[in-house]
Every structure is written in C-alpha cells, then in structure tokens.
Amino acid sequence: MIKGVTRLLIGSFAIMIVVLGMSMRANADSNSQTIPISISANNVNKSIDFVFNPNAKNSQDGVDASLPGYSINDVSKVLVTLNTGSNDAWYNEFNALPEANEVDTYVWGTENSDKPQKSEKPDQIIQGSQLNGMTPAEYIFSSSFSMGNVYGSNLQFIGFGSKPTLTTDNASKIWAIDSIKIQYAKVPATTTVDYVDENGHTVKSNSINGSIGDAGKYTPVAPSGYRLAKQGQVDYQMAAKTNTLAVHVVALPVSTPTGSITTPTVTPKPNTDWHPTSSTTTSEPAVPNDAAVKGSVVYATKGIYMYKNADFTNAQRLAKYPKTKRVNRPMFVVTDYARSKAGVLRYKVRDVNHGSKTAGKVGYITASQKFVVPVYYQTVPKTKKLTVLSRQGVNAYRNVNLTKPVKHFKKGARLMVKKLDKHNLTTRYQLSNGSYVTANKKLVIEGNH
Length: 449
What we know:
2 helices; 33 strands; 4 domains; signal; Ubiquitin-like (UB roll); mainly beta; 5-stranded antiparallel sheet; elongated; 2% helix; DUF5776; DUF5776 domain-containing protein
C-alpha cells in the first residue's frame, strides 16, 4: 500500500493530511459517518465524535472546535487522516506566512516512492489579495480552501465559537476524512504604537502585547505638547509577531507668557542743589522685519552652536549642530531676542529635535539668515508644484489645522498647490483638490525633484 501525506504550514500553523489507500468506513447505520476530532492546548484536552450523514437532504450542524482563551489564529497544528479508496498517494504542502499573509503550495510526487521528494519551487502562491481579507488560518478552515487531490475535501464544517451549517453539498466534501487532530499554541505578538508628528518624527512610543490574531481598539493619549490629529480609538490587529500602529499628532502652538508689569510710583526728593540729573530707559533689542517671529520655528542650514548667552565664545557653547541633509536639519522654536555686546542680533531658542540628546535645551543661536531660516515656506512656489521629501511621506488633511486625514502621499509624490494659508505660526499648502498639507521644508520641497 502506498501512503501519502498532505501538509499545510501556516507560519507556526501546520496542517498534515495523511492519505491511506483504504475503503471509506461507516457506522452501523450505513447512512452516517463518525469523525473523531481531538483538540488540545497545553494541558487542556477535548474530544468530539462528529456524526454526520453525507446523504442527508436537510442541513446539519458542524463542529465548534474552540477552546476558552484561544482563537482560530492560535491553531498551530492540524493532522487530518483521509480515506481515498485507491492506491493513489499524494503529498501536498501548503506554507502560509503570517508576516507576508500568503500561502505557498507545494506538490510532492509519491506514486512510486515511500519517501517523496519536495519540489524546489511552489506550484502556486496564494497571495494575500486572494485570501479575501482572511488570515491564513481562517483561509484553511473556509470554503475557499480545498484538498484538491482528495475529491475537493475541505474543513469548512469546523467552526471556532460556532457550528457552521453543513449542507448536502459541502457534506460531500468531507466524506473522505477519517480523523482530525487540532492543536492550539498562542504565538506571542507585539504592536508598537508610534506617535508621529507632522514632521514625520516619532515623539513617543508605546507597545501592546498579545498574540497573533488578537484585535482590538487602542485609546491614544497625546504626548505632552501635542494634540491628536484625529480623536477617538484606533483599531489594531496583530497579524504578525511584530506589528506597528501610527498615531498622528500635531504640536501645540508655543504660547508666549503674557501679563502686565506694575511699575511702583516713586516720589523723588527735591534737588535743592539744583544739580541736573539724567535718566536712561531700556527696551527690547530692535528687531529687523525679516527676523523670525517669536514662537515660530527655524532650522539650521549650516553647522551652528548653541550658547549660554548672546556673547558667543567657545566657553559658552552648550551644543553643536553639524551641517546635515535637509530632512535631518535641527529645528528650534524662537522664544526671545537678544543682542551681543557688539550689537549682533541673536535668537533665544528651545531645541525641539525630538529623540535627540539635545532635545529641550534652551540657549542662544545666530539670527543670521546665512545659517538659520524659517522651517515653513512663506510663499507659493512659482511653478505651483511640490515634491514630498519625507521618507515616511506626508498626509493630506481636510482642515487647515491638519485634522481629518484624507490621503497619504509617499516620498517622491508631486503635488499641485493652490495657495498658502497661515495657521498660528505655521503655514500650510492648500492643494488643487482643496485638501491641506504641511509647508515644512523638511517634508516637502518646491518644484519637481
């Protein structure tokens, strides 16, 4: 007798089908069959004798193979023994990788060999798009999957949390099944939640721990200094061992402290000697019209240093910012102005380069436009064209405050600009379709590139 085996591997999920050349068995009642099904998970075992009539005209209940605390995507192994009633033998292998969400199908020739040789390449690759939204494990237990070499046998009569309805038509597809063993084993999985600002930087990360197949809703909490671009819970699904979930946030405007200064009233004593006195007044340093506005963001186009005060000396250096690529240029929020003893204008700034060692530092940098310029464009490009620079791409939003995302543009995408709108101390480009994108020079560049 020649034996054959069909084996399905789904990442850690495996189905092995053993084909034995023997006649179909039946109960004493020739119109019914019994399929013993054993289910196990760690130290939990469950047995079911599934009795069905392949010739019944009315529908029948299938089998609920679920175990408390486990789902269909926790199934790690299934062994199916088949009767074919002939000496033909087949050995098929189906590999489904959760990370790639696809099934590779191999066929081994076995008619004249007890040790069949595996083919070098898959005979068929079932892509994720063919799974119709199902996970690989869900696909194996659906009507879409068929053990084609054994009369189209399938496992659609097995449910998880319910008993599928077995009709006369699909009952004919399981008559050759002799026995089934199902083994559960949870596969640990993690979803990393990245809070991403409008510059494409991750400003905070959290993690969700679970198992492959888990799904739920995550309630994001905006990091300090930010607000959520979109309110509400976010759906997540752990389809692989490692997963990512992006939550978009928008930086809150930098507020400048306001208040009034009370000047005490002083009554001077009369100058009986009538010696003239002189008085001096102080005020904020005069600022040219092209200087960055308080609260706005600038970035360094060349290498610069941050200093403790407005008089720049080597001893006063707090941090060094080397010249770097446009998308990585260091950014600062201008909080005040100062002048050196020689009268040179300086910006008092706060480092807002999230994730860097210098983030949060406060000090003074040059105000020269040869070294620092506004991060946000202030005019519409002459060609009215933009190119996306960010490796993470940029989102287009329905509103000028960058809420309600409507589309994502990948790096290199070319956009048509309608106009430039100001929002607080930043600017946005309105596209030809009416949506808004950031005007941040680190994320987009004028023209086609």
